[in-house]
Amino acid sequence: SSGINAEYGYAEIGKKLGRSAGSVRDRLTKVGKGLTKKGKLAWTDDELKRFHDARAKLGNDFKKISESVGTRTPRQCVQRAAAEKKQEAAELTRSEKATLVELLYNEPVNYVDEIDWKGV
Predict the structure, then answer these.
(1) Which of 26, 41, 103, 109 could share a disulfide with 114, CB 3.0–4.6 Å?
(2) Structural contact between residues 77 and 65, judged by C-beta atoms closer than 8 angstroms
(3) Phi, psi (rounded to 5 degrees) for 20
(4) What is the mean pLDDT of residues 54-80?
(5) Are 109 and 115 in contact (CB under 8 A)?
(6) What is the DSSP letter of 19?
(7) pTM for this structure?
């Protein structure tokens, strides 16, 4: 047989990447799919669930979080946490949105849903 499996072996590649042989095979057969804009392997829904469950239990112990995820390194887990924190910081809360609208339109409101959008 030819190709990556014959030359290197999915199991050997998996060891180096911290992934199972099946995960490597699945990812390599979907080259171009599931990649981020930077060409990195995107987190799967299953990985994200394990990551969030582990974070809830373990806080910022990224070595243990990595072990719980099973397919990501501690560094990748740190990077994921930082990216999520940055995304959360960029999002306005309901109260902040209301304050912004109040400032923009000088219309006193407590929540965005109290705004008469037709009248704005």
Answers:
(1) 109
(2) yes
(3) -80, 160
(4) 94
(5) yes
(6) -
(7) 0.51
